[in-house]
Amino acid sequence: MHKIPLWRYILCTMKVTAYFQDIGKNFLKCGVAGWCLEVIFTSVDSFLQRDWRLMGRTSLLMFPIYGMGAMLAPIGRGVDRWLQTDPTDRLRRRDQILRHGMLYMVLIFVMEYATGFWLRSRGICPWDYTGRHSNINGLIRLDFAPLWFGTGLLFELITSKRPA
After folding, report:
1. How far is residue 16's CA from residue 72's CA, in Å, rounded to a whole number?
2. pLDDT at 91 over 80
């Protein structure tokens, strides 16, 4: 039986623990950021109705849904590695932003549809786009594409490690 040295076991455990701590912190960052964005976005309805209190709203159920945004940046980096792109190449940075934004937008639409379908089957879906422009089954709105494009890039920005 082959034993791994204790130092290697401890180092590996520390790396795994740090990874999950980062994911947990990023989950919280995305959950809170998503809540804030939703409250701001829904307060626009108040503004359009000339209700100057700008009452925004959200749901507790939205926190874990937005929290899943913590996985967007790792997926984007994985796609970059798969495409073998050089992250330091400034000329390709614009292409990377476009690629990541489009990828995140599609992933957000998929997750919004899937979670909405699951929540609706339990009678607790906090959104319903039925009767709204460009909706699909009342679960997603295609005209939100630019919003999800930007939200995905924002989640990537707030979850990226920056030099201290």
Report:
1. 19
2. no
- Tokens found for residue 1: 């039986």
> What angle is formed at CA 54 by the lines to CA 48 and CA 58, rounded to 5 degrees?
105
Q: Quick check: 33 pLDDT over 70?
A: yes
Burial per residue of 119-132, b for 16 or more beta-carbon CB atoms within 10 angstroms, e otherwise: beeeeebebebeee
Q: Does the structure show a pLDDT above 70 at 57?
A: yes
The domains of the chain are located at 6-159
**Higher-confidence position of 57 and 93:** 57
Q: Quick check: helix, strand or coil at residue 140?
A: strand
Q: What are the CA-CA distances from residue 133 to residues 44, 59, 129, 143, 148 (Å)?
A: 17, 23, 8, 7, 16
Q: What angle do CA 150, 38, 75 make, to 5 degrees?
A: 40
Q: Are 54 and 43 contacting, i.e. CB atoms less than 8 angstroms apart?
A: yes
Nearest Cα to Cα of residue 62 among 93, 31, 26, 102: 31
Q: CB burial class (10 A; 0-12, 13-18, 19+) of residue 76?
A: buried
